[in-house]
Design a protein that fits this description.
Strand order of the largest sheet: 12-15-18-21-24-27-30-33-36-39-41
Mean pLDDT: 95
EC number: 2.7.7.23, 2.3.1.157
Pfam family, one: Hexapep
Radius of gyration: 31 Å
CATH class of the largest domain: Alpha Beta
Catalytic activity: N-acetyl-alpha-D-glucosamine 1-phosphate + UTP + H(+) = UDP-N-acetyl-alpha-D-glucosamine + diphosphate; alpha-D-glucosamine 1-phosphate + acetyl-CoA = N-acetyl-alpha-D-glucosamine 1-phosphate + CoA + H(+)
Largest sheet: 11 strands, parallel
Protein name: Bifunctional protein GlmU
Family: In the C-terminal section; belongs to the transferase hexapeptide repeat family. In the N-terminal section; belongs to the N-acetylglucosamine-1-phosphate uridyltransferase family.
CATH architecture of the largest domain: Alpha-Beta Complex
CATH topology of the largest domain: Spore Coat Polysaccharide Biosynthesis Protein SpsA, Chain A
Number of domains: 3
Strand content: 25-35%
Distance between the termini: 99 Å
Number of strands: 41
Number of helices: 10
Structural class: alpha/beta
Low-confidence stretches: none
Helix content: 10-25%
Length: about 450
């Protein structure tokens, strides 16, 4: 039978103290609701329904059309939230998992085991629970003497004895779908918050002598919900450790994992070494046997095999095999470096393509340009690409040599095997195999200082 999922994401998240909608806050570079969706899909659930609250247009836009969304007009509790899908789902066969949008750490492996347990036991409802020595704030799992689930009691409604219970609900459930929506009609708001609690469905089903189970996940950290910035930081730490462990198991060397920041979608080849303080973000791919030093930040880029990046920033760029970048260089978006290229200290590259073995060793700006293979760009060279209104390109052929402190005023073409004399300002095309000198002849005024004084 089909299993679908309802994600509860209508909470305002006031404790986040943010203009950003709660479930769009990122954990290791990915919005927490996207973690939940991704884990559901990895667990085999593709039919996903989301309950949002007011001001959620940004979430709807982010999720796109592949996810069903609806609005909970009033925040009247979790049972009321699930009922927003009653007209659509009440008569469907199969099972429905209900999960909170602020629980990004529940892994696909746990979700699969949870579903398997539910189906294996044949229960009408199964609770994902865990055990903690610090249960404050969580709904407690109240069991009968035979170990079966009797009910879930919320913190504010619990007795002193019930508050001592260490098994807590994660807020994630699986129900027989028809049973869920039939029971929702019987939920009332006779509680301290005057809300319609989804856990009350458990008590209703027990009164009907329906089978209710709880699957205890051994890792309490997986069930952590994120309600404020402290919890967000804790979740980031847990997930970062999970991500880094997986990379190390796949053959990546992290010199100091606790000080290495890698987003979830990053892919890294074996034998690559990453030093403490490196930040690797977004959809970045790093090849085999690369080296990323401390102080480097890479985002949404493709880094080839054997590349070395030292104390540099790389954004939305491609770096070919064996290329060396840095120290203290910046590759801005749409930069593309070929194989065995050298980008040295204090070089900035923007929207430029450098062919194999090209060299820009230090103190240069290469923007809106194409640099031919094996060309050597001298210290202090600037491609003058902007006239205050428009951007223009500089084209340099292969095996060219650009002398130090040259200004290449775009649009301009420098031919293959051409030389530009140091200190030149080039405004006209330079043909292949040519030498261009564009500077005033030196004038020396002997005794100038004595004359003025």
């Amino acid at each position: 039978m089909q299993t679908r999922a309802i994600i509860l994401a209508a909470g305002k998240g006031t404790r986040m103290k943010s203009e950003k909608y709660k479930v769009l806050h990122e954990v290791c570079g990915t919005p927490m609701i996207q973690h939940v969706i991704g884990n559901l899909r990895e667990a085999g659930i593709s039919d996903i329904y989301v309950v949002l609250g007011h001001g959620s247009e940004t979430v709807s836009n982010y999720l796109g059309e592949s996810i069903h969304t609806t609005i909970q007009e009033e925040q009247l509790g979790t049972a009321h939230a699930v009922r927003q899908w009653q007209d659509t789902l009440h008569d469907k066969d199969g099972h429905t998992m209900v999960v909170c949008g602020d629980t990004p750490l529940i892994s696909d492996t746990t979700m699969q085991a949870f579903m398997h347990y539910h189906l294996e036991t044949g229960s009408k409802a199964t609770i994902l629970s865990s055990r903690t020595q610090m249960p404050f704030g969580y709904g407690r799992i109240v069991r009968k003497e035979n170990g079966s689930v009797k009910r879930i009691v919320e913190e504010k409604d619990a007795t002193d004895l019930e508050r001592e219970i260490k098994e807590v609900s994660s807020g994630t459930f699986i129900f027989d779908n028809r049973t869920l929506f039939e029971a929702l009609d019987k939920v009332n708001n006779d509680n301290a918050q005057n809300e319609y609690y989804l856990p009350d469905v458990i008590s209703i089903l027990r009164d009907q002598r329906a089978r209710v189970e709880a699957y205890v996940t051994p890792d309490f950290e997986e069930t952590l919900g994120i309600n404020d910035r402290v919890a967000l930081a804790n979740a980031e730490e847990v997930m970062r450790k999970r991500i880094n462990t997986l990379h190390m198991q796949n053959g990546v060397t992290l010199i100091h994992p606790e000080m290495t920041y890698i987003d979830k979608e990053v892919e890294i080849g074996s034998d690559t070494v990453i030093y403490p303080g490196a930040i690797i973000r977004g959809k970045t791919e790093i090849g085999r046997s690369a080296m990323i030093s401390s102080g480097s930040e890479i985002k949404d880029s493709i880094i080839g095999d054997g590349v070395e990046i030292r104390q540099s920033v790389v954004t939305s760029s491609k770096v070919g095999r064996g290329t060396k970048v840095g120290p203290f260089a910046q590759l801005r978006p749409e930069s593309e470096l070929g194989e065995e290229v050298k980008i040295g200290n204090f070089v900035e590259v923007k929207k430029a393509k450098l062919e194999n073995e090209a060299k820009v060793s230090h103190l240069s700006y290469i923007g809106d340009a194409s640099i031919g293979a094996r060309s050597n760009i001298g210290c202090g060279t600037i491609t003058v690409n902007y006239d205050g209104k428009n951007k223009f390109r500089t084209e340099i052929g292969q095996d060219a040599f650009i002398g130090c402190n040259s200004n290449l005023v775009a649009p301009v073409k420098i031919g293959a095997r051409s030389f530009i004399a140091a200190g030149s300002t080039i405004t006209d095309e330079v043909p292949d195999d040519s030498l261009a000198i564009a500077r005033n002849r030196q004038t020396t005024k002997d005794g100038y200082y004595k004359k003025d004084n």
